Amino acid sequence: MAVVVRGNAAGMTLIEWREGDRQFHLSNGRLSVVLAIHENGALGLLHLGRPLATGRSYRHMLSRPFEGFSNRLGDPVALECPTPGSGDYRAPGLVVEQPDGSTVLELAYAGHRITAGKPELGALPATYVEANDEAETLEVDLRDARSGVVVTLRYTVFRDLAAIARSVVVRNEGDAVLTVRCAMSAVVDLPDDDWTLIHLSGTWARERHVQERRLAPGRQSISSNRGASSAAQNPFIALRRRSTAEEHGEALGVALIYSGNFLAEVEVEPFGTARLRIGMDPENFAWELGPGADLQLPEAVIVHATDGLGGMSETFHRLFRERLARGVWRDRPRPILVNNWEGTYFDFDEERLIAIASVARDLGIELFVLDDGWFGKRDDDTTSLGDWTVDRRKLPNGIDGLARRVTELGIQFGIWIEPEMVSERSELFAAHPDWAIGIPGRPRTEGRTQLVLDFSRPEVVDHLERVLSDVLRSGPISYVKWDMNRTITEPWTPSLPPDRQGEFFHRYILGVYELYRRLTAAFPEILFESCASGGGRFDGGMLAFAPQAWTSDDTDAIERLAIQWGTSLAYPVSSMGAHVSAVPNHQVGRITPLSTRASVAFFGAFGYELDTTRLTEGERAEIRDQIAFFRQHRELIQYGRFLRLRGPFEGDGNETAWMSVSDDRRRAIVGFYRALNRPSPGPSRLRLRGLDSAAEYRVSIWPAADDATGRANTGTRRGDELEAVGLAIDGDRDEAARRGDFWARLFILEA
Ligand code: DGJ
Predict the structure, then answer these.
(1) Which residue spans of the chain are classified as CATH 2.70.98.60?
(2) Which residues make up the CATH 2.60.40.1180 domain(s) of the chain?
């Protein structure tokens, strides 16, 4: 029997092809994916999970071989690219409408290639490798002889991560015009349904709260049809076993590297198998595929863990931080910034901004960010989007004059833009009313009194590239916050004929990616932060261009515990913009201690969002201390291993704790947070993870306090004690009585 394998430069074989068994085995010692070609030529999944030995046939796992029409109708055969027909009643991965209106395809194996490394995905963002020995890629071609549809399923297995990147190209090699009606990036047919589905849901100011539900017969799905991945649902789902917890048990996470409409779904069919699908939302989607044309689908990243949800997240964090984010800022410690939005909203002028920036500089802040309101005549949110020329009433010396004064103070300057939008009251709208998305003759829904520009049209993207490049060239700008404050409600574009309007949403996102690509290429030193009314487009697609994203407009420390916890299921700490703001908090009116606000925001791309000139002397002293502390530990927190310890979605949610550990396990920082204080505490303990059990750690607390918690923990503790017994959180009744609500402590461990 011929067994064809490839070794990469590290001498490892990641993809094995057993010709006699017609079986592919992708494995790296951390996970295995075994695929086999059914008798009828369809490709099916035999196993996705724990690593299995290579050099063996697993064909016996095909308990229900798929032999075309010989299988019983409705039998749940595992398929990698299911299409209508063949007795498969489950939701398909690919639907292509043919000239006769039918959609049945018989996709059969037509060849494959195994290559070192990982190919790019054309216009779409994707994970990547820096050297060919970091991964191997399998491409399998499936062909439908009658229609000429050829599907290339692409699987990349990373050498050092329990992760697979999966994408698909659909090609028309026939001579008729076809229409793709549904095209999933990944389908995973799982042999059982004994899973709990986890997804991240919410809305403005409470994004990515963790939701869990047991799988049940039928389809359970999340999706977005808003033109953006959205705050309502995130393009990420996970499955966990009943017994899986943070630190142990099996988990399977799937994320779509895409920022537009998506669908993520698990279907349990009558025999109890589960089909997971993720990809562009088929609702409102149709793509014309002329002879010779192809369609590249977005990438899905699949992570398998046997060490719990924590292990799953760690793999996503590493992959997204190191091989999805790119550019010079990928590995750099992120600047501590002050953003003027909550400090001034639209009410500012050059002198007020300089005053904020100069106090910020004295506090140790490294970057001043000018938010919304600097252009056109924008005194409120009813006007001027699209007119990216400076408002000289507020900034008589232009962006350049302001940026120079800020940088002369000794800190960097950054600016807010919202490229995809136009206000009806704007010069841009007057000149190009047809550039705003909407259907002629019908009213357009306004959100925040603004309309969305038609980014499916290349001339719109070209225009924005021109005017925004002028802005970014106009002064010493080192940071850009790219906002997007409303989603799309009347999709339609004059640039496509009536029968191709189903292409609109995807073309819109391709336009957004194109502008991101051009601006990040032209300004490689600028740090981009994506934003969408807070965290309304926090996804892997955005992360490929902007290594950090504004996590939420909710800056309240207690609300942020839930938001940052949920976000951390898939996304790394370095990607989460997190700011300290004033109290009472502008979103919930809560008054929390300044140290608690910082203790939460430290676990992110840290900054402040307030008017520094209004701080009291005492607050300034505290902030100086916060910044000194954060500078000392920033790399550990932003680039260390992040572990969740106690969660806002567990029990009564009153306590949250997490920690960052350096790769060499010599240093760690633990954050402990309690929302409401309770009297008469017991001797509560917080057990840590990820430490070197034999190491002696010097434990200190922040902010420094001579209290019972401080006394109980400061000193030297061995790693094994900290993991087995933990830190002492409470114990002193009198002290607890003085503590108040919204209490936080950081524990610093140094071996
Ligand atoms: C929404 C963002 O999330 C805020 O941070 C701020 O930039 C406003 N937009 C400005 O309009």
Answers:
(1) 87-323
(2) 645-750
Closest atom of ligand 1 relative to the 531 alpha carbon: 3
What is the band of 63 on the pLDDT scale with cuts at 50, 70, 90?
low
Q: Where in the chain is the domain with CATH 3.20.20.70?
A: 337-592+611-616
Q: Is the pLDDT of residue 529 over 70?
A: yes
pLDDT value at 405 more than 80? yes
Residue burial 16-51, b: 16+ Cβ < 10 Å; e: rest: bbbeebbbbbbbbebbbbbbbbbebbbbbbbbbbeb
Residue 612 Cα to ligand 1 middle (Å) = 18
**315 contact partners, CB below 8 Å, separation of at least 6:** 161, 162, 163, 253, 303, 305
CB 4 within 8 A of CB 31: no
Measured in Å, residue 417 CA sits from the centre of ligand 1 at 10
Name the CATH code of domain 337-592+611-616 (choices 3.40.190.10, 3.30.420.40, 3.40.50.2020, 3.20.20.70). Answer: 3.20.20.70
pLDDT in tens, 168-223: 999 999 999 999 999 999 999 999 999 999 999 999 999 999 999 999 999 999 99
Lowest mean pLDDT among 55-69, 75-89, 205-219, 245-259: 55-69
Query: What's the 125 CA to ligand 1 centre distance in angstroms?
Result: 25
Q: What is the CATH number of domain 645-750?
A: 2.60.40.1180
- The mean-pLDDT minimum among 53-67, 461-475, 510-524 falls in 53-67
Instruction: Give the pLDDT confidence score for residue 733 in this predicted structure.
Output: 85
DSSP for 435-498 reads: GB---TTSPPPPBTTBEEB-TTSHHHHHHHHHHHHHHHHSS---EEEE------SS---TTS-G
Of all protein residues, the one whose alpha carbon is nearest to atom 1 of ligand 1 is 533
Tell me if the bond preceding 703 is cis, omega within 30° of 0.
yes
Catalytic residue among 21, 193, 553, 556: 553
Q: Percent of the chain, pLDDT > 90?
A: 91
CB atoms within 10 A of CB 192: 12
Does the predicted model carry a pTM greater than 0.85? yes
The number of residues in the chain equals 751
Give residue 25's pLDDT.
Answer: 98
Q: Report whether CATH 2.70.98.60 matches the domain 87-323.
A: yes
For residue 239, which of 213, 207, 216, 218 has the smallest C-alpha distance? 213
Residues 667-690 pLDDT 10s: 999 999 999 999 888 888 999 999
CA nearest to 659, candidates 675, 671, 676: 671
Annotated active-site residue in 88, 387, 391, 483: 483
In the annotation, is 483 catalytic? yes
